[in-house]
Amino acid sequence: MKTIYKMKGYTLHLIPSQKFKTMTVSLRLQSPLTKETTTLRTLLTFVLIAATKKYPSTKEISSYLDDNYGARLSTNISTKGQSQIMNIYTSFVNEKFLPQKESLLVHQIQLLNDLFFDPYIQNDAFDETIVLQKKKELKERLQVNKDDKFSYSLDKLFEYMGHNQTLGIPSTGYEKDIESITAKDLYHYLQKCIQEDEKHLYIVGDIDESVVEIFDKYLKFPENQHHYTSSYCFKTQKDEVLEVIEKQDLTQSKLNIGYQIDCDFISNKHYAMTVFNALFGGFSQSRLFKNVREEHSLCYYVSSSYDAFNGIMIVNAGIDAKDYDKARQLIDEQLHDIQNGHVEDEEIQVAKMMLQNALRKTNDEAGSMITLLYNRDITGKKETNDEYIQKLLSVTKEDIIEVSKNIRLDTIFFLTGKEIHENNIL
């Protein structure tokens, strides 16, 4: 069965699966990540699903979803390197399991169409009351992120590491910009998204090619030829390593370290970097977990992550402030040890096994299946999960050592308690 279709203004991807009793539809809209639009775009994800002309309130939207056997509708915003992605997501019961035949797919596609092409508009603008409420909700969301010290410290690392670059732009927007956005600004920005965003739509469930006719009938966007860059390799603008220490009222300090790696999602070193990260700090059997957390009992948590769309690696650790120097030293030692060629065959095999198990599990969750496919679709990578796993399994010890030698310390952000004096941690 053909699984990819060029529709009017978007690409439709069919993901047949009999594992689920539900159908999942995800419409993803991609545009460049910029300081000028990140807040607009984030606020739009809040307002977009609040009302339509037919259902002019959040309460009426909720009632409609309840009437459709508890269908779900949500949005989220994320970044993929140099792009910002809006995701409109709906899931609902496969009609095969209903007591009487109803086309819930048609209902949900009609709803998607109404969200974009028949929203609740007054005087060429979104409803003022709804926009004010959603501004309040966005502010509250940003405050929650600030209060979560893990998220806050990671955001600050990106801000300092990516100053005046795409990496430093928050996907959730700037709180200072929220008030200045008008209901008319937001509606006009929706029109721009409809015209210019690159769009991919995914449907997961027990489906066949007949669903293509439904999408063709009920959902059309303007044709456009826009294609936006996502994955890239971060290049620093700093002459030396940046170290930033911030003090707040907290007991557990947060250590965040950013590295340049000269590798991204479309690099031929991507597979070796993925295995390296798994071995270094990606799983509970990794070097950082065993040697920094368990053997030396220095960290409440410690891990590394490979951001393949920004082309960077991050290490996160929760520590006591007095252990700052020691924790940094041990993290550096683990990296230098691998760079110097000290890698055991057994730990490579464990890392590959952990990666393989994690990838296999993605087939058990519709959202994960969609995300994996989307990452490949927007970067032009043509490979299946099995092909991807085989490439990971073929990574050699020499490949891992080689890719590790390109890892260079760039930025350190340390969030610690106010009562700690700097000479205790420097």
Order of helices and strands: EEEHHEEHHHHHEHEEHHEEHHHHHE
Structural class: alpha+beta
Assign a percent range to the helix content: 40-55%
The best one-word shape is globular
Major sheet: 6 strands, mixed
CA gyration radius, whole angstroms:
23 Å
Strand content: 15-25%
**Based on DSSP secondary structure assignment, what is the total number of beta strands?**
11
Helix count equals 15
Low-pLDDT regions: 421-426
Strand order of the largest sheet: 1-2-6-3-5-4
The average pLDDT is: 94
**Alpha-carbon distance between the two ends:** 61 Å
Put the structure in a nutshell.
Helix content is 42%, strand content 21%.
Write the layout of secondary structure elements.
Elements: E1 4-6, E2 11-16, E3 22-32, H1 38-48, H2 58-67, E4 72-80, E5 83-93, H3 104-117, H4 128-147, H5 149-161, H6 175-178, H7 183-196, E6 198-205, H8 211-218, E7 242-248, E8 253-260, H9 270-282, H10 287-294, E9 299-307, E10 312-319, H11 324-339, H12 345-361, H13 366-379, H14 385-393, H15 397-404, E11 408-417
Helix pairs in contact: 1-4, 1-7, 3-8, 9-12, 9-15, 10-11, 12-14
